[in-house]
Specification:
2 copies of one chain form a homodimer. With 156 residues, the first copy, chain A, is of the alpha+beta class. Chain A has 2 domains: 5-45, Arc Repressor Mutant, subunit A (Orthogonal Bundle); 65-138, Alpha-Beta Plaits (2-Layer Sandwich). Chain A has helices spanning 5-16, 22-29, 33-45, 78-89, 115-128; strands spanning 49-56, 65-72, 94-100, 106-112, 133-145. In chain A, helix 2 (22-29) crosses helix 3 (33-45). Chains A and B meet through helix 1, strand 1, helix 4, strand 3 and strand 4 of A and helix 1, strand 1, helix 4, strand 3 and strand 4 of B. Chain A binds a DNA duplex (30 and 30 nucleotides) through helix 3. Chains A, B: InterPro entries: ArsR-like_HTH, AsnC-type_HTH_dom, Dimeric_a/b-barrel, Tscrpt_reg_AsnC-like, Tscrpt_reg_AsnC/Lrp_C, WH-like_DNA-bd_sf, WH_DNA-bd_sf. Chains A, B: This is AsnC family transcriptional regulator.
Amino acid sequence: MDLDEIDLQILALLQCDASISTELVSQHVGVSKTPCWRRMQRLEKLGYVKKKVALLDADKLDLGVSVFVQIKTNRHDASWAEELTDVINDFPEVVEFYRMAGEYDYLLRVLVKDISAYDEFYKKLIRSTSLTDVTSNFAMEQIKYTTEVPLAAPKI
Amino acid sequence: MDLDEIDLQILALLQCDASISTELVSQHVGVSKTPCWRRMQRLEKLGYVKKKVALLDADKLDLGVSVFVQIKTNRHDASWAEELTDVINDFPEVVEFYRMAGEYDYLLRVLVKDISAYDEFYKKLIRSTSLTDVTSNFAMEQIKYTTEVPLAAPKI
DNA sequence: GATTCTATTGAAATATTATTCCTTTAATTG
DNA sequence: CAATTAAAGGAATAATATTTCAATAGAATC
């Protein structure tokens, strides 16, 4: 990891607010504009910053329901896994997708308007591929959601 | 929802790439710079755009392991819920936190370096508050992760 | 149906911020 | 200690965001 303390500080600032100006970043981290800007460029180039995005208010856009879907399968070959990945990537409702250790094989987070929209999704999903066991868990409330990764922050 | 088609297009662009210039956005959606800029301002002001952030590469930063933690409790009063929220909000490792319907009461996604880092977190957590039942599910691989909400996209 | 009023648009002007260029400083090695 | 290299900072330039204002379109009233 070829990052020094200043780089980490820059990353911490940017993952909190990507619209901050180079000048302000430079003041926070204690180097002048040009070297600060070069560091920011480098962090993007090396892929530490993957992208800059706007986070939308899902509730306001009537997408208030997260459903966690646990999936079991009896197909454990690579080609099936690839097929499933392709299927899932075609669903914009699926915002997270993990291969799990333990009890079940995959976990999805599906973001929908309401229960009936989830049912629509569910029917599309089981039509798209063959799954052994699908369990749906509904979230009533999103209490915390952050895209900030926990950088080893020496909070004094 | 006081948004027209153009607003939705703007939101779709920004949640994909927040560093796009106003000029490019205006060309995509077919209005000129100034009204496009005013729409963007309005979307922030009304809270449709909550914030703009940089998404970091968690793997490169050695934070490759997501753990989903299911929590059950026998305390179902409001004050305990509030206490739990406060406790959780103090853990930067917890990147998502939901109150669930059904089997278990809460679900966390915890982002850590490795299993031993998770164990550290786990010990801190159970020391911080009293929980009836805690089940940890490890993700082996993050196959999909997006912050983009599924805007009713008529993908033709 | 003409006319006024209002709200929205877009082109141009201005201000801010990003980016480049070049000199200076600091650090490292022979 | 001089020579070389790498990184830093200041000043100039380019790009972009923001404001201003004149022009247009739409709605409402007479």
